[in-house]
Every structure is written in structure tokens, then in C-alpha cells.
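About this split. The held-out portion is used to measure sequence recovery: a designer receives only the C-alpha cells and must propose an amino acid at every position. Recovery is the fraction of positions where the proposal matches the reference. Here is one held-out target exactly as it appears in the evaluation file.
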């Protein structure tokens, strides 16, 4: 139990270390929407707010395609990282960028044509709003290419543990977006076109700051067009489409909800919903950031068949992420009135109270949405396609659109808001019932709730999780590993080698890694017996250290130095090192 708790602490520490940057990344698009909505409502008018709201479903469609490629690529790249298949990682990276660029150009042409040639009739028939929407579409088209490429760069920078560059790019984007909105909307009075151009031009800067790292020659992942293979495109789509279908469903949901609001409430309802939604998007960056860090660790854990870390990610979600999000939701509800005043100042206007009630009701759906998002991501990585499609359909369109259609004749505008927490209840119950049906019993632990197959990884009897915090732990754990091997029928020579390998590698981390800074560190050691192999996995959160490089240096050094490392590399069947999300991960097969 102590070892499992130590592993959970390491997972928690890693997730929360990565979380701030991922939240900021998720907030970039939300800040764009909030800034645009602020300038639209205060300097252009309510009709411009309607244009922002009417573009939202189309933007969701573009984002859904980006999500297919980014989500599928990152999960597949994480699996290959867990399996240490570096060539396949390079191919997935290159394939993602090339495909994203081609699709972005196609969307750019289509959206530009809609704006220039007045092809936006399927979004609105309102003769007053439609010309404003056309100008807004024209400006937004320019930013589609950097939006899709910027999303890809951000995801892969996280895998390379270079999230600080994305952090810098995000801050620069926010500043430029505000400045350009001030110049183009307030000073030059370009109205809806200025709103869209400000975010589009800012997005080019956001993409450029991140792309520079991949032109510097310092990145592990590099664009390789000449050797590009499309063999992985099917797997990327297979993994990415189920999760991204939720965005497609939300596009359909947005169109349905907009039509219902137009019919029962009027354009003022669309303006109110757009205002509340744009405020909520800022706060949605928190659960989206939580999902982003979890997705990376989930995909790597699936590749490594690391059952313990996989379940620990979900435990962190329930024990840490959910309470945090509940507190944030409470703050939003308490601040509903001042947040509404960002857009509307007159309480006598109907749009004012419609927005206030949106900010009082919508936050209640956020904690339950975190559960749905995490189980959807896990389903993508583990091949549970039925669950992913079911959750996507329910969460994306059926529940929200269905409950809104049922309630809007009676509750009016508030039906749209109430439909969202009802949707969260349905999806959470769906996850529980799915596990109950598949396991043929009520889930009593995380393994049951996640429906992890018995064949996944090593069984509990065939693995042992240990934690190292001092050099004394190294010696005692080395003896435990020897006993574990002998009890599982491993010959004495390999049992001794397994103990020696752990003692040498973990001892080296304690002696050198633990002393590099003043932080508290630990080593997570997992030994497993599978297919007659002894597999040692040693993880630590110290500074990056590749024993393979040390071993190469030692070959031309004093033969008396680094004897332990040399012996491990010469006698083990395979030794692989990776730095995954800031963790040193050493896998030894004996």
C-alpha cells in the first residue's frame, strides 16, 4: 500500500506540474472569444454578439477536425513513446503537421467563400445580422491555418516537456489580441471584420512562436516529408474520431439550440447565450487542461501496459480535479452579476438577466463533465469505441438538445442552461451502467469502473510496486526483487542480475539525482514477470539522465569506473531510456 501511495503521489505531482501550462493553452481560444465578445458588445453592438454566437458552431466543426488529428496523434505518439518506437513517433508527428496544413487550407477557402459570396444563409436568415456575420467570417478565415497548426505544435511541445514555450506563446497571443482589437475595432472602426482579424493575426504569432522551436534543431521530433508514410493515418483517425465526434455533435447541437432560441426567445437569446458561453469558455480551460495532462499520461500508460499509473490518473481526477473544479464552479456562480457586466450594464434589458442566469446554472455541469471527458479519453486510448461513441452522442447532442427542446416551451431561455447539468447526470450514470454491464457486477474499485481487461499488463500476483526514498531502500528492495524472481521460477542468475540492475540504476539516481536540487524526490520501481521475461521499470522525477549516454562515455574512460552500468547494459536483453513528460523512465528486460 505504501508503494502504491508513493506512485500516486508521483502521478499527482506530475499532473499538477503540467496543469498550469495546459490550462493556459486551453484558455487561449477562450480569451479570444471573451475579448471579441467584449469589443463586440461594447463597441459594435448586440448584432455583432449574435455574429460571434452564430460562428460558434462552425468554429466547433473546425476545432473538431483539429481534435481528431491532435487527439489521435498525441495518443498514438504516447503509445509509441511507451513502446520506445522512435521512428514511428517521428512519422506520426510529420503526418499530423502535413495533414493539418492541407485540411486547414481547405477550411480557409470554404469559410472565405462563405463570407465573400454571402453563402452563410444556413447559419442565419436575419437580414440585419447576416452582413455582419459575412464580414466576421472573412476575417476568421485568415486564422484557421495557424489555429490548427498551433494546436498541433502545442500538443507535441507538451510531449517534449517544452510547455514553457507554449506558455510564452499564449501570453504573447493574449496581449496581441487585446491590442489589435483596440486598434482595429475601437480606433479604425472595422467592426465585425476587425474583431475577426484581431484574433486571426494574433493566432499567426501564437503559431510562429511555437514553430520556431522545431526550426531550431533542438527538438526530438522533426518534420520528415521525404520519408513520410501514411500507414499511421488510419490509426490516428480510429483513435481520434470517436473523441472528436463530440465536437461534431456539439456543432449539430449548436445549430439546433440556436434555432430553438430564435424560435422561442429571439436573437436576444442568442446574444445572451453567446455572452455566458464566452465567459464559461475561460473557466472551461481548467477541465480541458486537466484532460490534456491526463491524456498524455493515459496514452503512455496504455503503451507501457502500466495498470497502476493508469488507475492512479483516474484517482487523481476523482480526488483532486473534481473538488478543485467544484470550488471554481462555486466562484463563477457567486460572480455571475459582475461577469455579466463585462458585456451588459443595464439590468432592465432582458439580455442582462438571461446572461446572469446562464452564469448561475451552467457552472453546475462542469464537475460531472470532467468525469465524462476522462472516460472518453481513456476509451480512445484503450479501444473502447462503443463507450466513446455513446458518451460523445449523449454529451454532444442528444441530452442538451433533447432536454432543451422538451423544456423550452415552459422555461424559455433557462431551458438551455438547465439541459447542461442534466446532461452531466446522464453521462455519469452511463459510465457506471456500462461498467456494471461489462463486469456483470456493480463496480467496487477503479479497475472495475474502468473495465480494465485481466490481460492488460501483468496481474497483481505477477508484479510488484516499490518505492525508493533513500540508499537504504535501494539495498532492501534489491533483495525483494531477487526473492520475487525466484518465487516466479526465474533462474538464480537472472534473479541476481535483476536485483543488481535495480540496485545499480536506482542507487545512481539516489546518489546523483536526489542531490541536484533541494526538492524531495522518489523513485518508483516496478518489477513484472511476463512471458518468462523479468521487466524492470524505474521512474524518477529528477533532472534528465540517460544511463545509455553515460555507458557510452564509460567505454572510453577508466575501466574501473561505472562498472555497474556497463554490466547491466552487457547482460540485460534490452535497456531503454526515455524522458517522458519530465520523468526519467528506464525499462530493463532480463
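Reference sequence for scoring:
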Amino acid at each position: 500500500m505504501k508503494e502504491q501511495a508513493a506512485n500516486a503521489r508521483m502521478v499527482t505531482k506530475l499532473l499538477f506540474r503540467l496543469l498550469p501550462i495546459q490550462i493556459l493553452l486551453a484558455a487561449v481560444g477562450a480569451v479570444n472569444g471573451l475579448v471579441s465578445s467584449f469589443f463586440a458588445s461594447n463597441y459594435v453592438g448586440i448584432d455583432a454578439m449574435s455574429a460571434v454566437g452564430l460562428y460558434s458552431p462552425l468554429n466547433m466543426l473546425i476545432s473538431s477536425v483539429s481534435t481528431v488529428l491532435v487527439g489521435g496523434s498525441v495518443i498514438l505518439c504516447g503509445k509509441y513513446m511507451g513502446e520506445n518506437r522512435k521512428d514511428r513517433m517521428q512519422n506520426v508527428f510529420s503526418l499530423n503537421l502535413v495533414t493539418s496544413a492541407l485540411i486547414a487550407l481547405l477550411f480557409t477557402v470554404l469559410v472565405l467563400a462563405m463570407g465573400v459570396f454571402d453563402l452563410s444563409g444556413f447559419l442565419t436568415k436575419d437580414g440585419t445580422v447576416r452582413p455582419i456575420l459575412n464580414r466576421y467570417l472573412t476575417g476568421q478565415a485568415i486564422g484557421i491555418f495557424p489555429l490548427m497548426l498551433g494546436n498541433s505544435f502545442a500538443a507535441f511541445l507538451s510531449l517534449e516537456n517544452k510547455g514553457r514555450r507554449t506558455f510564452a506563446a499564449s501570453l504573447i497571443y493574449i496581449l496581441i489580441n487585446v491590442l489589435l482589437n483596440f486598434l482595429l475595432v475601437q480606433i479604425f472602426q472595422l467592426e465585425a471584420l476587425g474583431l475577426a482579424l484581431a484574433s486571426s493575426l494574433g493566432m499567426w504569432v501564437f503559431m510562429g512562436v511555437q514553430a520556431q522551436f522545431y526550426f531550431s534543431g533542438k527538438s526530438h521530433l522533426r518534420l520528415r516529408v521525404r520519408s513520410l508514410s501514411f500507414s499511421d493515418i488510419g490509426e490516428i483517425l480510429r483513435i481520434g474520431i470517436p473523441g472528436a465526434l463530440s465536437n461534431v455533435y456539439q456543432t449539430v447541437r449548436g445549430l439546433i439550440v440556436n434555432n430553438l432560441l430564435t424560435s422561442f426567445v429571439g436573437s436576444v437569446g442568442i446574444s445572451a447565450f453567446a455572452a455566458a458561453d464566452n465567459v464559461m469558455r475561460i473557466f472551461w480551460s481548467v477541465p480541458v487542461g486537466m484532460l490534456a495532462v491526463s491524456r498524455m499520461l493515459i496514452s503512455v500508460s496504455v503503451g507501457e501496459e502500466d495498470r497502476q499509473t493508469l488507475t492512479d490518473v483516474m484517482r487523481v481526477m476523482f480526488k483532486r480535479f473534481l473538488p478543485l473544479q467544484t470550488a471554481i464552479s462555486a466562484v463563477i456562480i457567486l460572480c455571475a452579476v459582475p461577469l455579466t457586466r463585462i458585456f451588459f450594464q443595464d439590468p432592465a434589458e432582458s439580455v442582462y438577466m438571461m446572461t446572469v442566469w446562464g452564469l448561475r446554472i451552467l457552472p453546475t455541469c462542469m464537475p460531472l463533465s470532467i468525469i465524462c471527458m476522462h472516460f472518453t479519453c481513456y476509451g480512445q486510448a484503450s479501444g473502447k469505441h462503443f463507450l466513446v461513441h455513446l458518451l460523445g452522442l449523449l454529451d454532444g447532442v442528444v441530452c442538451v438538445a433533447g432536454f432543451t427542446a422538451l423544456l423550452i416551451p415552459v422555461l424559455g431561455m433557462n431551458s438551455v442552461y438547465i439541459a447542461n447539468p442534466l446532461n452531466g447526470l446522464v453521462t455519469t450514470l452511463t459510465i457506471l451502467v456500462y461498467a456494471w454491464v461489462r463486469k456483470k457486477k456493480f463496480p467496487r474499485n477503479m479497475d472495475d469502473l474502468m473495465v480494465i481487461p485481466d490481460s492488460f499488463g501483468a496481474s497483481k500476483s505477477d508484479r510488484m510496486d516499490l518505492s525508493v526514498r533513500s540508499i537504504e531502500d535501494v539495498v532492501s528492495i534489491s533483495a525483494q526483487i531477487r526473492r520475487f524472481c525466484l518465487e516466479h521460477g526465474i533462474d538464480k542468475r537472472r534473479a541476481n542480475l535483476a536485483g543488481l540492475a535495480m540496485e545499480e540504476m536506482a542507487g545512481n539516481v539516489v546518489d546523483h539525482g536526489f542531490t541536484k536540487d533541494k526538492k524531495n524526490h522518489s523513485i518508483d520501481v516496478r518489477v513484472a514477470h511476463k512471458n518468462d521475461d523479468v521487466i524492470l521499470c524505474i521512474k524518477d522525477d529528477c533532472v534528465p539522465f540517460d544511463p545509455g549516454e553515460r555507458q557510452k562515455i564509460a567505454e572510453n574512460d577508466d575501466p574501473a569506473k561505472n562498472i555497474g552500468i556497463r554490466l547491466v547494459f552487457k547482460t540485460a536483453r534490452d535497456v531503454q531510456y526515455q524522458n517522458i513528460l519530465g520523468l526519467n523512465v528506464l525499462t530493463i528486460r532480463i
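Annotator remark: The CA atoms of residues 327 and 367 lie 9 Å apart.
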